[in-house]
Amino acid sequence: MKKTTLTAQYLDLLKKSLLNELYVENEARLLYTFDRMLNKQPLDFNDYFNITRIEPTLIDTLLRNKQTGLITVLQFIDADGRIQKADDLRNITELSHTMIGRDRLENVQFCVEKVLEDEVKGDFIETGIWRGGTCIFMQGLLVAYDATDRTVWAADSFEGVPAPTLPQDEGFDLSPNVLPVLAVSLEEVTKLFQRYGLLGENVKFLKGWFKDTLAVAPIGQLAILRLDGDLYESTMDALVPLYDKVSRGGFVIVDDYGSCPPCKRAIDDFRSQRGIADELHEIDIQSVYWRKS
């Protein structure tokens, strides 16, 4: 595997595009507009030309959150004078093509480059892809290293996160009734792959709930299993049929370990049940990974 300066520049540009770092000023303009509307303050068109001067802290916050994958949420003062978070606005202010942040993209790059370097056999899969940005990055890595003999499996309901049904998920509802932003259609994801020029024949989509698709999918070996299902049920529905397909030296990445308690419980239960002692490495405050021994 040869990593050239041109390869490194392409991959860095791909990360910047997926994270919307290239046009962060426009994201700041949108948030600035909503902030003024929420708090019933006047808008001055001239501010849009001087957004870096008017809102330097907002831009710094956006860039910092794009590094860590944290969410920028606007606040407003309600009729009773209390400060409230405008969580619903996330459905129209979430502009990036991936919400995992640069730190976790760097981890994906590390894992992909390591399995290519060590010739670990198997495909790549992400279970829960949202707009597809992380899978697009995986495919970009394979194209950059001319290693498109591996399949990138993109598994998602393309209808959002299912409503909780298990007791382990009680009170943790991320379904479209709560977060419609998480429901992205297969057509939208496919078009995004095309816009990046990365919709190769080796990209395969698995549409449906994990419990219905993953056990019957024609997946042989896996070198990377990236879990982003949020719920206990969704995490288990991916781990149970797929973990044994991960090759020795392959990676298991858990996006929600630190941010979604039901997901953490599923990982801890599965590792305990299977006697998995491979060390958990922290990527950031939300995510972990381990390498299968």
SSE map:
Elements: H1 5-18, H2 24-38, H3 45-49, H4 51-54, H5 56-68, E1 75-77, E2 83-85, H6 90-93, H7 101-117, E3 123-127, H8 133-144, E4 152-156, H9 186-195, E5 203-207, H10 210-213, E6 222-227, H11 232-242, E7 246-254, H12 261-274, E8 281-282, E9 288-291
Parallel strand pairs: 3-4, 3-6, 4-5, 6-7
Antiparallel strand pairs: 1-2, 7-9, 8-9
Helix pairs in contact: 1-8, 2-5, 5-7, 7-8, 11-12
Give an account of the 3D structure.
- By secondary structure, the protein is an alpha/beta fold.
- The chain has two domains: 20-93, no CATH class; 101-291, Vaccinia Virus protein VP39 (Rossmann fold, 3-Layer(aba) Sandwich), CATH 3.40.50.
- It has twelve helices and nine strands.
- The chain has helices spanning 5-18, 24-38, 45-49, 51-54, 56-68, 90-93, 101-117, 133-144, 186-195, 210-213, 232-242, 261-274; strands at 75-77, 83-85, 123-127, 152-156, 203-207, 222-227, 246-254, 281-282, 288-291.
- The strands form two sheets. It has a seven-stranded mixed beta sheet, sandwiched between helices. The protein has a two-stranded antiparallel sheet with strand order 1-2.
- Helix 11 links the parallel strand 6 and strand 7 (246-254).
- Helix 7 (101-117) runs parallel beside helix 8 (133-144).
- The longest helix has 17 residues, at 101-117.
Which characteristics define this entry?
293 residues, 2 domains, two-stranded antiparallel ribbon
Examine the secondary-structure arrangement and name the CATH architecture of the largest domain: 3-Layer(aba) Sandwich
Number of helices: 12
* Strand adjacency order, main sheet: 5-4-3-6-7-9-8
| Oligomerization state | single chain
The succession of helices and strands, N to C, reads HHHHHEEHHEHEHEHEHEHEE
Q: What are the low-pLDDT stretches, counting only 5+ consecutive residues below 50?
A: none
Strand content is: 5-15%
Q: Could you please say which CATH topology of the largest domain applies here?
A: Rossmann fold
Q: Supply Rg.
A: 20 Å
Average pLDDT across residues?
95
- Tell me the overall shape: globular
